[in-house]
Amino acid sequence: MTHAPRLPLAVGLPMAVASGLAIPVQGRINGALGARLGDGIAAAVVSFSTGLIVMIVVSLLAPRGRAGLARILPALRERRFPPYYALAGGIGAFFVFAQSFTVGLLGIALFTVATVTGQTLSGLLVDRLGIGPAGKKSVTGIRVIGCILTIAAVSWAVSPRFIGGAAGAAGAAGASDSASAAAADPAALLLPIILPVLAGFLMSFQQAMNGTATVHYGTPIAATLVNFIAGTCVLWVAWSIKVAVAGPANPLPGEWWYYLGGPMGCVFIGLGALLVRSLGVLVTGLGMIAGQLLGSLGLDLLAPTPGTVVEAATVLGTLLTLASIVVATLPWPRGAFRR
């Protein structure tokens, strides 16, 4: 096992925020690819497959990547960590499933709030159980306050999009009787809301599992590679079933930028696996959430989609998210706010 030095908070937290910047960029690219292909699962397959190709190349060319490759099978054979940790990439595949099947009904705003709520709550739990490589971290009152502020801030930041999401859902409802029934019956929205909450909840476990694997592989390159192998296998199986039932999607586009979603995923999965050992799962997740909002705001300002308007609530909610992370990571006196 290779024990890399832990990063100080002043270094690790900005890295977590920076890694979160890649998430909305990936979402924009994969969303455009899904629309071009007419198949969200096919877009996810392309994204994971290109990410896997990138990680194979990096693993073979980089000295640390080759060293990590040599440690994967021994670590699994000797059960240095639970073998199912190698399947963490399946959680990423499940997240894509939840995104593909619920965003059209719930809208991106409600989907974001649901996933952030699940991820923030599970970050507390995973740290308390000590599943990640950072060990157990107490559930203090100030950390709980930071989580509540984060959920409130994200809800505020995306609130201007609720109107657009509701309009989109209403339009979809007018297109089919089943969607109309779902819109009319709030109980019909229970499953679509539970799916992104569960997907977000599992994301913290994925980060913890990848972080633990990174400690034993000696590099996040190997952990990210294994993550993409598992996720790609799951998505190829799901896509094969869909093709057998509904037929293939549209042909692949020729524009190169449609294939950048996978490399973006390599960035935030790899950095997440690296940072959880130093920051813990909760703080890593909060930093990435802040980066996600900052990246979304930057896209809306610099490369807006048609009809995009940046509201004051989006800017202020993003700033409140940053403040909530400061609250959650302040060095309070030992025993203060402890639950």
UniProtKB/TrEMBL annotation:
Statement: the UniProt record of this protein carries the keyword Ion transport: no
Keyword list, A-Z: Membrane, Transmembrane, Transmembrane helix
Coiled coil residues, start to end: none
A Pfam family reported for this protein in Swiss-Prot or TrEMBL: DMT_YdcZ
Statement: the UniProt record of this protein carries the keyword Transmembrane helix: yes
InterPro entries: YdcZ (IPR006750)
Annotated TM spans: 41-62, 83-101, 107-126, 138-158, 187-205, 217-241, 256-276, 283-303, 309-332
A cellular component annotation (GO) from this entry: plasma membrane
Domain of life of the source: Bacteria
Stated name of the protein: EamA-like transporter family protein
